[in-house]
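Example record for the data management plan.
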Amino acid sequence: MSAEKLVESDSLMSPPSGFRRIFSRGAGNGAKVGAGFLVGALLVGGGAFAANTISSSDSINACVNNTTRVITIAPTSGKCPTGTRALTWNIAGPQGPVGPVGPAGAAGANGAPGPAGSAGLAGATGAQGSAGVAGNSGSAGSAGSAGSAGSTGSTSNSNTSFSVTSIANALLPSVVSIAITTRTGSVAGSGSIIKSSATSTFILTNNHVISGATKVTVELEDGTELEGQIVGFDVAYDLAVVMVNQGNLPVANFGDSSKVVIGEPVVAIGSPLGLSGTVTSGIISSLDRPVTTGGTGSETYINALQTDAAVNPGNSGGPLVNAQSLIIGVNSAIASLGSATSSTGSIGLGFAIPINQAKRISNEIIATAKIVGTKVTLAGVSTRPLLGVSFDTSYAGSGAKIYALTAGGGAEVAGIPANSVIKAIDGKSTKDNIEAIVRIRSYDPGASIKVTVDLPNSGGSRTFTVTLGSAPSNSA
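Corresponding structural encoding:
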């Protein structure tokens, strides 16, 4: 037996060895700095002075040597010496009567954004470079336009709509803490308000949170404590519904777990170690993760959403929420490295029941329960799908080997023979009987699925269409 415990329930409380705050911020790009200077310089006479702004009316008279193309400041008389030609230098770049001399002026695009806000300042500085020497005023104007486009690029940012603060504000009022008293002690968990009328409210949680309860106490976000009643539970899916006699409470909204993708940001909310209203964030790490919990005869098989958001004992039954503040899962289990001396806690491997399954189960429980006045007089029941087979648990090969068929069950009706080995369900590889059970229970009763098997006696591979049957979830 390995020293590692693969999965364990997370509702039992244990003394914390420490606290860790998880804080997430959306990533963003820093502002890009454009080429050029923040303060321009104007030349006057033979010197220069700093100017905080440059207007389109600022200009400088200069002379260009016809041979060397060196620019000098024009004499105060305004007349250029022999062998030079006059030009006027302003913010738009070199301008003058000798525009056609400018084949080399194409280099003006290297520096000179035109007068387009702050990008125009960069253009003015560029005009002092070698590009402006050519004096082709038309070309300099084109370069200015290009500079404006560059300014647009500098405003780009990496934005995201994921806000942990917004999600917490939206969901916390509909998340509760649940304290359970049993004959042997007490446990704590979490839950989500899923339905509320004028007089009563229904709360979704895990079955292992309320199992064996002699008293249920529900604490709302504002600290109000209410007596809870168990409306019904589902051992196969590890789900339960609790009712309190107070109405008009805020209700959480369901998302669609079939649309969840790996890498999607999520938030877990609950009462880990009794710390109510705790919010942690992370991502969806994997989908369709086969997870089993519970003891012999009360096993739970979860086609789980895996998350690295911190989930600890006491988070059980609380919501896993997407960026739109919609519940996509019910936190149910964690993986831990167990030993006689180590305490159980998050190692970044949390598992949640997909909300599409939880929604069906909770609706069935509420619809079939009998409630008279303020009392639950008959617990509600829910159903699970059946393939109609028994698996050979001693089979050590790849796949799930069918030991026997249920008379009239979906597999027999479809024509699957005993001793066949299930290799895939709806195209998803099935490695063993646990994965087969988990895959099957991810469907609704009555669903039609494709089951690919290796036939006995080397009969090859074949795919059958099977209509799943139905049975009460809490039956053997």
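Summary line stored alongside the record: Residues 1-56, 91-99, 105-109, 116-160 have pLDDT under 50 and may be disordered.
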